[in-house]
Each structure stands twice: as C-alpha cells, then as structure tokens.
Amino acid sequence: MEENLTPFDPAEGLTSDEAIAGFMEEAFKTEDAGYIAHALGVVARAKGMTQIAHETGLSREQLYRSFSEAGNPTLKTTIAVMKALGITLTATTSTKAGRKVPSAA
Hints:
The structure is a single chain. This protein has helices at residues 17-30, 33-47, 49-56, 60-66, 75-85. The chain is mainly alpha-helical. It has one domain. Helix 1 (17-30) packs antiparallel against helix 2 (33-47). It is globular, with a radius of gyration of 17 Å.
C-alpha cells in the first residue's frame, strides 16, 4: 500500500508574531547562516512576499532567490527583510568555556 504524503510548509504554521519569534529564535540558535536565511524566507512567505517586496524595495523574484535553500542574501538584503518583518537583532556578551569576554572599562 503506497501512502501519498503532502509536503510540509512551515510558513503555514506561522500565523502569529509569537510563532514567528519562536521559529526565528530556533533558527538563530543553530548559528547556521544558510539555515537562518532560509528561515527568514519562510517567515517572509508567511507574511506575504509581495508585501515584503514592497516594503524593502526589492523584487519578489530577488527575495525568493536570495532566501531559498541555495540562496546567499547580502547583509543589506537580510537587514531590510528583517526590518520589514519586525525582527531585530541585539548584541549581548557571552562567555565560552575557557574564554573571557573583555569588559568595557
């Protein structure tokens, strides 16, 4: 008996700001630039690629290409999309095993 499976689209489950924040938080935890870019593309699709294109001044085609699994968006494009999505980055200090973070004096 052969099962017919439908592809899973994570964009369909991103229906609230909380869901989007959790999805992006998990993507950032991977520290994988390619995965983070792909996750931003998923969120952009969930919000509406046409709307994101309008808000960033970029074409839909460019956004789809940049944030595909094989894409490699520039930092400028990434920041523009994050701004349009209402996603911000913050910097904090962290300590890794055996490494001290210098303090600002």
